[in-house]
Design goal:
137 residues, three-stranded antiparallel β-sheet, 8 strands, 2 domains
Length: 137
């Protein structure tokens, strides 16, 4: 496997935020062609952390509709017309946002849902489940 690990140290007070923050982004490409992204953040006091990725990857065909995606989240954040999260987290169950098991993107994006129409697709935050340290992943 090929691994790229990027790190950042943000000292207390950096950009006006409390707490020192150490962030690591690890990108792993295994021998089967699977790309895994892992983000970690450690801080020494309560602060705001929102790690995300806006890379767009097309792993083969002309579009991504045949690709599958899994997101370990039971809720997502609905957005307003300016794509700003608003209100409480909404459950993914029964919606196109339910990616708790691998799902073809084309199937999910073809569904009718006001949030998909508002964003022109997926442009939302998912609220990830707390990891189970005893679970094999």
């Amino acid at each position: 496997a090929a691994v790229l690990r990027l790190t950042l140290h943000s000292p207390h007070g950096d950009m006006g935020f409390p707490g020192a923050l150490d962030v690591t982004a690890t990108y792993t490409l295994d021998t089967t062609g699977t790309l895994a992204l892992e983000y970690t953040a450690v801080t020494d006091r309560p602060t705001v952390v929102n790690l995300t990725n806006h890379a767009y990857l097309n792993l083969g065909a002309d579009d991504i509709l045949g690709h599958t995606l899994q997101v370990d989240a039971d809720h997502y954040l609905p957005i307003d017309t300016g794509s700003i999260p608003e209100g409480p987290p909404a459950p993914v169950a029964g919606t196109p946002f339910d990616l708790t098991a691998p799902q073809p993107l084309g199937d999910r994006l073809a569904r009718s849902h006001p949030q998909l129409a508002l964003a022109g697709g997926f442009d939302h935050c998912w609220v990830l489940r707390e990891p189970d340290p005893a679970a094999l992943r």
